[in-house]
Design brief:
Elements lengths: L7 E7 L3 E10 L4 H12 L5 E12 L1 H16 L3 E5 L4 H9 L6 E3 L2 H10 L4
Helix pairs in contact: 1-2
Length: about 120
């Protein structure tokens, strides 16, 4: 039996312009408040972009999809943007099926996100 990876979120500032929210583990209703807390911490960095790295996510449900879309809309109203990083893991498929990849820009790697956002900002 494979052990369930615990939810973990860390927030960091990158290049003075990006708030990075790195998430790992299972994302479902039970971690909603912790996820919202991570976004609040990212907001406190006053960055022009928030990058959510979903590379370490093993499961993601519709609750989290709603939070991501809501956060993207809120940031746009405030003149900022949300970007996602997901490279072929389980979260990638959920983003595609839910159509979130049509609403929020998804980068294949964290390196690509940093390169494009720090050198050539995506709008």
């Amino acid at each position: 039996m494979v052990p369930i990876a615990p939810f973990r979120a860390t927030v960091a500032e990158v290049g003075g312009r990006i708030a990075l929210v790195s998430i790992s583990g299972e994302l479902d209703l039970y971690v909603e408040q912790e996820l919202r807390d991570a976004f609040a911490a990212a907001e406190g960095l006053n960055s022009s972009a928030v990058v959510v790295d979903l590379s370490g996510v093993s499961f993601m449900d519709s609750t989290v999809c709603g939070i991501l879309v809501g956060e993207a809309k809120r940031l746009r109203r405030e003149g900022s943007n949300l970007f996602l990083v997901s490279h072929g893991n389980r979260a990638s498929r959920v983003l595609e099926v839910a159509g979130i990849d049509q609403v929020v820009h998804v980068f294949p790697t964290l390196h690509t996100a940093f390169r494009d956002l720090l050198l050539e900002p995506v709008s």
